[in-house]
Amino acid sequence: MGLIVQKFGGSSVANTQKLELVTEHIIYEVEKGNKVVVVVSAQGKTTDRLISEEEEITKTPLKREHDVLVSTGEQITIAKLSMLLNEKNYRAVSLTGWQIPIITNSEFSNSRIKYIHNETVEEYLNAGNIVIVAGFQGVDENGNITTFGRGGSDTTAVALAASLKAERCDIYTDVDGVFTTDPRITDKAKKIKTISYEEMLELSSMGAKVLHNRCVEIGKKYNVPIYVKSTFEKISDGTLITNSGNLEDLVINGVTKDDYISRITIVGIENKIGRSYELFKLLAKHNINVDVIVQSFGEHIIKDIAFTVKMNDLDKTLKILDENKEMLNAKEILHCENLSKVSIIGVGIANKPGVAADMFEALYENNINMHMITTSEIKITVLVNSNEADIAVKAIHQKFFDN
Amino acid sequence: MGLIVQKFGGSSVANTQKLELVTEHIIYEVEKGNKVVVVVSAQGKTTDRLISEEEEITKTPLKREHDVLVSTGEQITIAKLSMLLNEKNYRAVSLTGWQIPIITNSEFSNSRIKYIHNETVEEYLNAGNIVIVAGFQGVDENGNITTFGRGGSDTTAVALAASLKAERCDIYTDVDGVFTTDPRITDKAKKIKTISYEEMLELSSMGAKVLHNRCVEIGKKYNVPIYVKSTFEKISDGTLITNSGNLEDLVINGVTKDDYISRITIVGIENKIGRSYELFKLLAKHNINVDVIVQSFGEHIIKDIAFTVKMNDLDKTLKILDENKEMLNAKEILHCENLSKVSIIGVGIANKPGVAADMFEALYENNINMHMITTSEIKITVLVNSNEADIAVKAIHQKFFDN
Q1: I need a labelling partner for B317 at 20 to 30 A (CA). Which of A130, A252, B119, B211 fits?
Q2: In whole angstroms, what is the distance from residue A51 CA to residue A63 CA?
Q3: CA-CA distance, B211 to B171, in Å (whole number)?
Q4: What is the pLDDT of residues B168-205, one digit of tens each?
Q5: How far is B84 from chain A (nearest CA, A)?
Q6: pLDDT by residue (tens digit) across A341-372?
Q7: How far is the C-alpha of B346 from the C-alpha of B344, rounded, in Å?
C-alpha cells in the first residue's frame, strides 16, 4: 500500500464520458489499497475558450488577472471529477492550488513552485479520501492566484509526488508512452520501456510533446519515478522515466522533429568580447526566443553567428536586426525559412563513436542537405528543409532501430 | 470623496459590450474622486451552463463540490472586468471570496456570512485601485469554498458596504429602480424614489424580483443606503432604500403579485395546544415551504387552518397530509389551485384607516373574488384566481396611484 499521484490532461478529461474512463484508473489504484492523489487539467478546449474571450477584451491582459481567469478551468474539472467519484461511492475531495496551498513565486502566468504544504492533502488522504487537485495553479505569498505556464499540470503532479514522497507519478495522456519517434511520421516507431530523465529532457525539449521539461526536471531532482501511460487503455505499462537510465542500452532512444524554424546568419560581425551578448540581449529584450546558436570563427577580427528562431518571430527579428545594424556592424544578414530541426537523443551518444556518422549517412543516402549541425553529450541536431524532415526522421529511425 | 460599493448582476455583465457599459458607471464614480468596490455576478447564462454540465454527472452533487464548480462563474467575470479597466488605464484588481476573505459558515450552497476582513480591500483601495469582487461566494473557516444561494451577489455587495462603512451601495440591474408594480402588468407603474427597508423586504418577498431579502436585511441592520439603478441608462437616479422610510408620504408604495399559489384548508382540526406546531413541523420535515397561514377559530374544540404552498409542492403536501390524517384527525382537507397573491405594501397602511377598504373596493368593482386575506402593519395580501390577478393589480394600482 503506497501513495500514487496520477495526472490526467485536458483531452483525458474533456467530457463526462472521458471522466468516466479517468475514474476507472483512479478506482483501480484505490482498490489495490493505494492512497491516490489525482491532478487534472482544464477540460478539452476550456482554456482556449477562456483565452479567446480574454482576447475580446485585450491583447495584453494583466498577467495577474489572466491567471485569475484561466485557473477557473482546472477548478471546474476538480469539482466534476470529485462529484463523479462520490456518485460512485468513492469518497473524494477537490482542492485548488491555494487550498493545498502550493506556494509559488509571483511571476504570474509563468510562476515557479517554492514549496508545497502537505498537511491538508495528507489529512484528507488519511481520512480515506481520494484527493483531486487542480493542476497548473498555485498561490503566491500575498494570496494572489498564479499559474505555471505550459506543461503546468505535469509540473503540479510531479512536484506533489516529490513533496508527498509518493511511490510514483503516473502521467496519463492520449498516447501509450514515449516513442522512439512520432508514430504519425513512421509506423516503425517503437515504445520506449525505460528512459532516463536526461534523455527525456532532450526528447521533450525537441518536440516530443508527451511531457514538459519542467516536470521531468523536478522528477530528476527528487528522484520521482514517472510513468507515461494511456488514459484510453485499461492496462497500459507505458514508459518509465527514472534515474537508472537507459536500461536497454540502446545507443539512441529517440528521433524527434520540430517544424517552423528559420535560421538567421549574421555574417562578418566584429569579433569583440560582449558582441554576442549584446546581440542576444537585444533579441531577448524584444522577447525573441533564440534556440540553436552556432558561432564560427572565421578571420581573427570578424566572425559569423547563426541562430534559429521560430518562423513567426522571423520578421520581427529581421526588423530588430535591421534597426540595429550600425551597432552590429555586420557585413551581411542572411536568413533561411521553412526549416525543421531533426534530432537524435540518447545517453549512448557520448560513449559510442560513429553515431553522428550513422545519422549523417542516413541523410546522405536520402539526398537531404543539412543547414546546421549542433551536438551535445546526449543529442545531435541537424537543420533540414521542412519538406524533407519526415523523410529524414524515417531514414534516421530506420538506421538506428530497424536492425 | 467617499467609498461606494457597486454591484452588477449577470445580465449586466453578460458579454464584453455590456462590460463596457459597466466600466462607464465605475469610471463615473472614480472620476468624481470616489473609492470604488465593484461586486459582480457570473456572466449571463454561465451558472446555468455549469449546472447543466453538473447534471450530466449527478443529480445530487456534493454541495461542497457544487460550490467549487459554480464559484468559477464570478471568478471569470472579475478577471475580465479588471482587465478591461486596466486596458482603459484605470488601475483595478480582482478578488475572489477567499482572497478578501469573506468568512462564512460551512453550509455549502446556502452559506451565511460570519465576518469580512477589510484589510486586503482597504490596502488595494488606498493604493489607488478599483477593487473588483466576486459576488455570491466566500470561504469557511476550514478553507472550503462556499456560495450563498439565491441573491448572493446582492448580499456580497451590501455586506461589503456595511463592513467597509461605505457611503452607499448601488445595485445596478436591468430596470431603473423599484416600481409601484410590475411594469409588464400595467404601464401606469411608477418608479418609487424612496422606500424603507421594511417596505422593500415586503416587496421583494412578495414577488418583486429586484432585490433579494437577505441583502435588504443586511442593509437595514447596518443602515446602508441602497440605490437600485439601471445599468443601461447613463444617468439613473433609481430607487433609494433607506431607513428614513417613505419620504413622500404615500400611503402605499407598491402593488405586487406572486403566481402559482395553491391553498390548502384543513377543516375541523382539533383545537389543542401544539396541534398547529405538529402540522407545520411535519411539513417542514418534508421541505414544504408554507407561506401565508390563516387560522380561524370556529367552535371551541375544533378549528380550521388554511395555508398556501407553491403549486409544485401541492401534490407532495396533499400526500403527506393524507398519510398523516389520523394524527391530524381533521374533518376534511380541501385545496384550491391556480391562485395568486396580490399585495399592497406601505408604511402608511398602519396609520391610515380605509386602506384595506380601498383595496377591497377596487377588487369588488372588478368582480374579483378573494380567497384569503391577511394583513400586517405594512402589508395587505389577498389571494385571487390567477386569471384575474393582473386585472386585480391594475385596479388596485389605479386606485392608489392614479389620482
Answers
A1: B211
A2: 12
A3: 9
A4: 999 998 888 888 888 788 888 888 888 888 888 887 66
A5: 6
A6: 999 888 767 666 678 888 888 888 999 988 88
A7: 7
